[in-house]
Amino acid sequence: MPAARPRASFEPIPPDFDVRTFVETADNFQYVDRISHEMIANNGMEQFEKLILLHVIIGGKPLVIDGFEEVLDPWTFTPSWLRDNHGEKVENARNLSTKENIPLTIKHYLRHMAKLTDQFFDEPKQYRDKARQRIYLKDIDCPQVWQDKLKENIPSGLFYLNESTGVPGGPGALDELGGRKGRGIARAGDLMSSLPPEMRAENLMCYIGHEGTYTPSHREMCASLGQNIMVNASNHMSEDGKPERPGSSIWFMTETKDRHLVSEYWLSVLGHDIEVENHFAQLVAWKKAPFKTYVVEQRPGDFILIPPLAPHQVWNRGTRTMKVAWNRTTVETLELALNEAIPNSRVVCRDEQYKNKAIVYYTLLKYSSLIKSARAQVEAGGEQANAIQRSVKVRQVQRDFKRLFDLYKNILLSEMYAPDSREHPEFIPYDSNVTCAYCRCNIFNRFLSCKSCNTMFSSEIEEPYDVCMDCYCMGRSCGCQSGYTWVEQWKWKDLIHKYEEWRAQIIDIDGHVTENTPLALQEERRYFGKKTLAQVCQEQLRVRPFVDIKNPEPEGASEDEEPVVDEYGNVKKVVNRKSKQWLAKHKSCHVCLHRHPKWKMAFCSNCDLSYCYGTLFRAHDMMPVNVMEAHNWKCPHCRRVCNTGACRRDPRQHPYEPKGTLLGHDTKKVADVRSVECLVDFSVSNLNWMRKEEGMAQSAMQRRMEQADVDKMADPSLDARFVDEDHAYTRYGITYSPVEDTNGNVNESGDGVHAGPSGGPLQLDANGESYYPDPDMDGDIPRLGQKRGRDEQEDEDGKKRRKSKAKKPKKKNDDTARTLQPKNASGKQYQKEVQRKLLEEAKREDRFILVAARMKGKSRVVKLSLAAGHLEQIRQRPVPERPEVIRQRTPEEVDASGDMRSILQSDVMPKSNALKSVAEKEKDAKTYRVRVEEDDAYSTRKRTTETNGPAKPGRPRGSRRFEEITLESDEELGGEDDEAEYTGRPRTRASNWLARRNEGGEDLPTELPQDFRDGAVRPNREKDRERNRVYADRRKTMPAKSKAGIRPSAPENPSRDSTGNISGHASDQDGVHEEDDQSSEAITFAQQAAAAALEAQQKEEEAKARAAAEAREAEENLRAKMALFPESDNEDDLMNDLLGDFPAEDEPFDEEQFEGETPEPVHTGSPQSTNSVSGRPGMNGKKINVVSAASRHNGDEPSNFATRTTVTAPVSKFTNVNKKAQAIDESDSESEGDIPASAPAPKKSVGRLAGRPSMVPNRGSSSGKRGRGRPRKTL
What we know:
The protein is of the alpha+beta class. It has 35 helices and 32 strands. The strands form 10 sheets. The chain has a 9-stranded mixed sheet with strand order 2-3-12-9-14-7-6-4-5. It has a 5-stranded mixed sheet with strand order 1-11-10-13-8. Helix 8 packs antiparallel against helix 22. 33% of the residues are buried. It holds the Pfam family JmjC.
């Protein structure tokens, strides 16, 4: 298990963090060097490339190139463009708080960024809540338009997948199609471009984050060079006129030469491994670090270059930051990757996505063809030959070719078998997709494959276990441990042929054989001095026993177990005596004293001592392969560095101390489930071996510091990787802008590493090891608005520095104000267009004064000069009594008050019921259960000859089956006008359900008026009439469809004529439906529903009254504002006069408090007419007969059992006012009172409003489709 060691926790950076004070008051902080993009053109591309090589690659220091915001297209790199063109694309956003991915669309994330940011500004300590949502849209594909725009402005040598840094028509350029010259011979800016397109790793990514999102401390993958440019960030005002928090990103960066020191600081002090990339270091941790930290606050247009293997972390600020990042691979990074980065990643099982060995091979192929082309042109003679011989870029290609050949030679040497072996490996053509099942690195050629456990997951699908040679030498394999088959992806003779061909080219470049000229491969093998990696694997395959995982043999008792008995024959004890065979196969370790199988032991060639590989790894920093590849390995005791207890007391021994801390990594979570570690348990730490004694000269941290100081003393210009072809330029031709000296000094206050967060000694654990406690965030972090300074006891020099920098905050504000004034013409045009749209929208929303004031940087506070008497009159004016308007909160406000930790949710995945908003709950369908009977005409049961016979005794007539009816909300019904075409009954308004529901009531209506669609309250009347006419014409050409029902019905539906008499015509659509046997229960249910509807109507009228009062108040406020300003023809002069005296304001304002809600219109006049037949013309005072059937009957004969009810229509006391028809559905079995302002959805279509789709009957089924195709919802 990993070490149980205290670890530094995550501490967020406060939103008001003062970066400038933090950097200028710390000894080990320094700003990153900056240059302008204009200096690149002034000094030339060659000098710029030389700067990148010396400063970033060899020097290992970060660099910032600013000013790109002046050349980037301001119309393209905006959130609105991204939302309009890629808003529907689904990406996985990372929730940094829960370590989970949230699938959502880009527009959904952009819409919620302001809310995600504001949650950290609600309260002073709100940012410290670690459980708050931090949603980071990272590692998303860069739009192709953005890639093309960046390619036009970024230096070609630094851009993604650059194939050549040569100039068009340069030395060695060939003619292309169209008659123009191609690029001259030069090396590629990104060696990833040498791979075939299908093998390349796509690493051009976009990163969109808000306040509180971050990238933990990490190093670029495979020691590559990182490029990151910010293309957009929020300002004080968004594109739609809403306030925003200014966006930026704070970078904490280190040097490449400090990488070992940084790694040891992370392990021993912070308790984290930087290779795992899961910890964001605290501000105090960077302040107390024993190395120099480079800080930069990235803003739009800042292009940051990250050196290889240099740890860094990023913190995003403000409402929005949008960045584009990519990685480049060069010859220098390939050397670091193969020698250091990949071995470190292999220990923690981190993916290798860049295929470094394949890049070496394919780049050699590419450079070899370029060198051949140059050679042919030189032999042809002419001016081109002289230009090629003098070309610096051609010589750079030749040097890179030699260095790549050295890497290729080491790859082949590692894959050579033993001289006397006769292996016949299996051949698989290389496709770059074979990876190690354990460490997940990419395998270039030879590897081992187990065929014994290939059917462990499935008996039908074979999944072989492929392991790289490096992992197998480390003791990593599947449970079989041995019995592997050799597999190769390149023909060995083809690789040898390329080796000899490229070696001949190197000899031709040099002109003769030198001491650095590579030898033949067999000669190189002779001088290799150790066993090759493939040879070690061959030996281990013979030594390690094969384990059949399908039939494992349990480890039983020893064969020599003899029971010991007393004189009476009773067993006293059991002595477990190991057999001679077992003792012959096991050996005791000199350090841990445990007996291990001999194939797990390392035997000394000079003595009879043996060591287990786990002890050698943790106590002596020796990997198993370091022991196995030696021809004659000497143990630590023979080398006089043994650190066992007995050897430490020996004066001849000098105990070895581990170079660094190892915390251990449990790789079982990421490796193949069939994997085992049979030699070393890499999850165990070496903290027990990190001892501090009196005789100890230095600690691991001090040794790392000294090594870093030695590395920094080396001059980059004297490095073997750099050959200056032109000595005319000193300082690389480009001026730096460092803030402090760059002599590489580290923190000299005490011993550096042993200083705690408060300046005192660092706390120690039980083993005497230092660890990093949680610091006091409020004590050491400077905030905006606080007084700057280091300590109260600062010397006079410090006081002078503080006084000289007192005016810098004002300058910073000026810079912020100038960010609204772009320098280039396109930026000015873009800003002018944005401001124009904002002002037009502000006029429509009555926010013109606020928006215009914000654009001019003025305050929203208005000062009015009033006379004392007039002010007193205003104060004594009686305040009119208004009903208190309770503002209904928006769904976002409800979510914010309920659970601020779940602001953003996926718009792709379904939401959970617990997090539904108020609006969603109002839209939720309401489900009721009603009792139904089957329709014999459409039933699947066998019909009986007598359907109207009397019910049998003891058996109830009718079905006991209930059906769920879903009532949709008005909002959903109103928004579905354009759905499926109506295919049901004609769209005449049938009142059957209403009449049957109100049957038995004395004062209840039984039919809707004929003119219920007319009136001024229906604005869409003409549109509906036209729609009905088109539908009627279409309906005439359609065949009539039979009607399906599920409830019992009479043979004929009696219909009502205009005089209210009853007829037996079955085709009349205004007939009265039949009732079931339980008519009395339905009448009671209808009366209760009517009472509920009345109560709901009263509540609706009260809500309308409150809305009217709010509307009157808003109108009065608007008139009062307009009265303050006289009429003016020049609107700009009026605004300038108004805003001229306003004080400036820097902080963003909240405009929501100035926005009012639009009140709903209040209907005035006579009372609204009810849905009653008595409201029809000529029906006042007449009697209406309502008949309900009590049993079924056949044919056209009337029912034998009927109930007749006489209802007298009341005399109308008011004039009907036509009310706007609502989008409602009618049902045969529900009451109107169950849902306010809407009728139940029908089970069978009985007529709909014009423009509403209806249901299509399902023949052969007991029920039709649910309303508009929705699925059935259950309780």
